[in-house]
Amino acid sequence: MGRPQLSRKPATYRVRDARAKDAAAFLGLVEALADFEKLDPPDAAARRRLRRDAFGVRPRIHVLLAETSRGEAAAYAIYFFTYSSFLAKPTLYLEDLFVHPDHRRRRVADLVMRRLAAIAKREGCGRMEWVVLDWNKGAQAFYERLGARHLHDWFTYRLDHRGIARLSK
Ligand SMILES: CC(C)(COP(=O)(O)OP(=O)(O)OC[C@H]1O[C@@H](n2cnc3c(N)ncnc32)[C@H](O)[C@@H]1OP(=O)(O)O)[C@@H](O)C(=O)NCCC(=O)NCCS
Question: Class for domain 13-167, per CATH?
Answer without folding.
Answer: alpha beta
